Hints:
By secondary structure, this protein is of the alpha/beta class. The chain has helices spanning 16-34, 47-53, 61-65, 85-97, 162-179, 197-212, 223-232, 244-257, 296-309, 312-328, 341-353; strands spanning 4-12, 37-42, 70-75, 102-108, 126-132, 136-145, 153-159, 184-189, 217-222, 239-242, 265-269, 275-279. The chain has 11 helices and 12 strands. Helix 1 crosses helix 9 (296-309), helix 1 packs parallel to helix 11 and helix 9 packs antiparallel against helix 10 (312-328). Helix 6 links the parallel strand 8 and strand 9. The chain folds into 2 domains: 1-104 and 271-354, Isopropylmalate Dehydrogenase (3-Layer(aba) Sandwich); 115-258, Isopropylmalate Dehydrogenase. The protein binds 3-isopropylmalic acid and manganese (II) ion (MN).
Amino acid sequence: MAGSYKVAVIPGDGTGPEVVAEGLKVLEAAAQRFGFTVSQTPYDFGGDRYLRTGETLPPSAITELQGFDAIYLGAIGHPDVRPGILEKGILLALRFALDQYINLRPVKLYPNVDCPLKDKGPEDIDFVVVRENTEGLYCGAGGFLKKGTADEVAIQESINTRKGVERCLRYAFDYTRRRAKRNTLTLCGKTNVLTFAFDLWERTFREVGERDYPDIRREYAHVDATCMWMVKNPEWFDVIVTDNMFGDIITDLGAMIQGGMGIAAGGNINPEGVSMFEPIGGSAPKYTGQGVINPLAAIAAVQMMLDTLGEREAARTVEEGIVHAVGQLKSLSAGKMGFSTSEVGDMVAQHVAG
Ligand code: IPM
Ligand code: MN
């Protein structure tokens, strides 16, 4: 029986709506071609709604969203809203409440894409970062003491639970096995300084790996060294697993070596629940409404969504469409593509339509 999927769409702020429109165009083309159906339900969460109503997420949001097969998100972030409010109140709130404990971020350089690394090509840059997505420094644990005085203390704690670490590591091991590329999983940490948090990570990595994944080679790299190798020898990596904060940082570096924010997508995954897919660049206020933003990252998010929904062939075809479009674009950067946002969306959609 053909699949039928309920997708919640949160276009969000800035260029979010523009890129989401192109992603949905491609999703529709894939549905037509591969014979599944998609029903879309829009949600207006974002900066404008917050400025209008003072509310980030309405109380009903989480229960409603739990009823969908997937969530498609554009971007969250508004120049008129103080940093942190929308990020915490919407993006992180959704990740946490929906227990999307994995942030999956592929780093893949496509042919014909300008790479800032000298002498590196598509055969060298193809790895995936599995970022823990619900714990670590992102928990919001900590506080101030004597705020605003000369004796002020600010504490921000990283929370790492055995359960949270282990489920993330297991996902990464399974993913490495399924990917079947080099069967190598690298734990990225900082065991030489963060001797509590990464002791737990390292021990769990070894225990789980030895017991249940003897076929997967285990490697370890400190986060600073990981940054170095990502630039110097990105071909060494197959799958990297790391905590929330390090994962945030190294995936921006990853996005740059794969051609920039115009192409980088991620999935906030709850393997047992509802997952949310997004381009990882921000809301890009300065490009808003001009039709010059690159929609390929948002289209790549659709590819990841289809893959997670089990529409593997459709996902592969969307990726082919992206590769096709990349070959036509002058640059992946906003305003320099040589095409408008919707022309790029059409290019991929037509390719997917066959
Ligand atoms: C990301 C973003 C978010 C994060 C921000 C907007 C809260 O940078 O998705 O990587 O830090 O996770
Ligand atoms: Mn980030």
